[in-house]
What we know:
Layout: H1 34-43, H2 61-73, H3 79-89, H4 115-130, E1 133-141, H5 143-155, H6 165-179, E2 185-187, E3 194-196, E4 202-204, E5 206-208, E6 211-213, E7 216-217, H7 225-240, E8 254-258, E9 277-281, E10 285-290, E11 295-308, H8 314-329
Parallel strand pairs: 4-8, 8-9
Antiparallel strand pairs: 1-11, 2-3, 4-7, 5-6, 9-11, 10-11
Amino acid sequence: TSSAPAAAAPAPKPSPTAALEPAPAMSAKAHASPSVRKFARELGVDLGRLSGSGPKGRILHTDVQGFVKSVMSGAAASPAAAAPAAKGGGGLDLLPWPSLDFSKFGETELQPLSRIKKISGPNLHRNWVMIPHVTQFDEADVTELEQFRKDSNDAFAKSGVKFTMLAFVIKASVAALKKFPIFNASLDEKGENLILKKFYNIGFAADTPNGLVVPVIKNVDAKSVSQIAKEMTDLSAQARDGKLKPADMQGASFTISSLGGIGGTAFTPIINAPEVAILGLSKSSIKPVWDGKQFAPRLMLPLSLSYDHRVVDGAMGARFAAYLAEVLGDMRKTLL
């Protein structure tokens, strides 16, 4: 019998940063200064592939940075990265998504994603891939605050206002944002400057039959907790009925995602770009806490603070979470 044809040699595995690996030679025709050429060489960018935005088509530092960002986000790819991108790697040189016929293992059903999930999915993917997340975990003693919340609900029973712990956290977060304004900011498109916001618009994740949406309460610093609670109730109802307007979900400078009504002890919430941080709340529980003389039962609220590590360092993240816990332990601090 004739021998089987020799198998082709396996193609070399491209580097995870193939799109940014140096070309054998920098294009001599590129119109760029020596400093820009050096910058491009350090990042492995072939200037011949760029169009300059400077005078007479001159390539600037910002052009190189923009090209690198487009490659990393999958908007552009080098010839070396084109093959893996075409295979479903999303421009990040990932393995293609597994394609299996699950029906051969058992019965299956095809369920289309909801409209909300189709819209939010790509945004969540982009935010997770492009933002270096760090999550700081802490706990707040809300024993007295919980009692005050219950008393407030009794006092406002006839007005129809229902106080939730989230309403108090939204108000307390403004005090923390004012003390640490870097958390109430956004990076500009070039990633070179911080845009510090002087307004305090807080988004909160609302559960609906079709998925999570994030209504935004505007100018929280100028509102009382009762006003915040009423607005939360109204926005949540509109979200469940699918009646939120685009303006109701825009302009947030900070977001809070609360899973406390469901359960869990901690999680990593995904930052909602272009914000630089998001706060997650889990289910509060009674824990023994040492008060200096003895252990006492205290109601502890778990806090999960995810932040953009390009903007916020670890020490600042820990300070923000600790201060927020301090404010929740004594809401009188919001008056200072």
